[in-house]
Write a structure and sequence with these properties.
- The protein is an all-alpha fold.
- The chain has 14 helices and no strands.
- It has one domain.
- Helix 2 packs across helix 12.
Length: 381
Amino acid sequence: MAADAAADLGAATGIVVKNTRPELRALTSVRGIAAWLVVLYHIRLSMAFAPRWLIAGFAKGYLAVDFFFLLSGFVIWLTYSERLRSEGIAGAPDFLKRRVARVWPLHLVMLTGAATLALLMLVTGHGAPRMFPFEQLPLDLLMIQNWGFTDSLAWNVPAWSISVEFAAYLLFPLLALAIDWRRLPTVLILGTLALLFVLLHTVMSWAGAATMGQLITRIGLVRCLIEFTAGTALCALWLRWAEQPVRWAIASATVAAALFAGWLLGALPETLAVPPAFAAGLMALALTSGMRGNPLDARWLHYLGEISYATYLCHFLLYFVFKLVMVDDPYNVPPVLIALFLALVLGSSIALYHLVERPAQRAINRSRWPIPQTRNTVLMQ
């Protein structure tokens, strides 16, 4: 986040940069928790030993992606909006380079691993599963696989969200130049947020989606763009509410609790209740981040958040291989093997973060593509 960005700038240019944005450690920690909820969502059907209520909870793990979209818009606005407004459209290429550096190298590594696995299965006579369509591979390489070109999720399935986030990154410079949330009254920002969430619900209902996780290939892109935009507006509210954090955190938490209660009690549909509930919850978390005694500021939780992108991208393919090698019945995996797999995901996340994700990000960020670096160029995550 912003604190890391300032440190990276000093390392890259030798310039001492005063960081004016706090690192919201609680948000990084929650990102890690959300990534593990996605992991549990994808392996839940193998956990026959777990109680039904727990499996039912894991079955809603796909909702973590909606939190990711909101959080991404929040952090991107906090980190880049002022710079893009000051530099204008000329700052867009460097912004996009830094976003590609953030998401593409690890995506490429996982996609290469999936392609290698598919080729090995073909060579050994097993035949590549339908989830590995080679004709779709170029779309995945370009991170445009979920832009409406296909009707199925393939290769590294969780990467569909990286694809639609990439679309949000491409549009973000235009959004930052077109709308300065800081200049709008609070009531207008709140009204815009309400309209965005109603629009999302309307689009999903029109498409026939009763839950946020349905029809991903058809409306996943719209889902991301709306929630990402809502995240940018939330950041603007946080910037003005941070002077009275307790008051607004209580109000935000109350709204989130009311919306979640309405959803759980069946009074509100998931597509209408959950996105604004996450938005209100995100605001409460941002406002309370750094407060004394906040458990989300714990170092180990923060680290889980730092490696969460690796966790999110590696777990699905790892479980595919794990089942091939270690599992007889994929619907009844013993607890010890589930624990072994979760440990494998954690270890792989740590290794990928330190050996692939961060080194590749730094290398691309320090490169002179697409425009030469200048002493005024700010290096952001």
